[in-house]
Amino acid sequence: MGYLINGSDHEVDDEGYLLEAQLGDDVPAVIAAAEGITLTDAHWTVIRYLRDAWREHGHTPNFRAMLKEIAEIDPALDNKALYDLFPMGPAKQGARIAGLPKPFGKGGY
């Protein structure tokens, strides 16, 4: 399985994460549509945050760090709002829709 984005096939792992990060603006729309999510401005706030964190640190933050840092960007994006946006888990589903590789689990593994 993979995603066809702008005529190019992109491979995914067994959980649907892209094997290589794809940061084009078309990528989240394709992956979100496959997961039944219509992107809003709030989704894009989270996607930009996750992409910036990935560029800066080489991985995305865990949910606790994400919750704290994203509240500084938009206080309306609290725990409930993030789960409303990404019901399968904001840190994991958000990273997947952002076009990023699988996030580390607890403990950084």
Automatic annotation (TrEMBL):
Entry keyword Zinc: no
A Pfam family that the UniProt record links to this protein: DsrC
Keywords: Cytoplasm
Keyword Cytoplasm (UniProt): yes
InterPro entries the record matches: DsrC-like_C, DsrC-like_dom_sf, DsrC/TusE
Domain of life: Bacteria
Principal location listed in the UniProt entry: cytoplasm
Recorded family membership: Belongs to the DsrC/TusE family.
Designated name of the protein: Sulfurtransferase
Native organism taxonomy: Bacteria, Pseudomonadati, Pseudomonadota, Betaproteobacteria, Burkholderiales
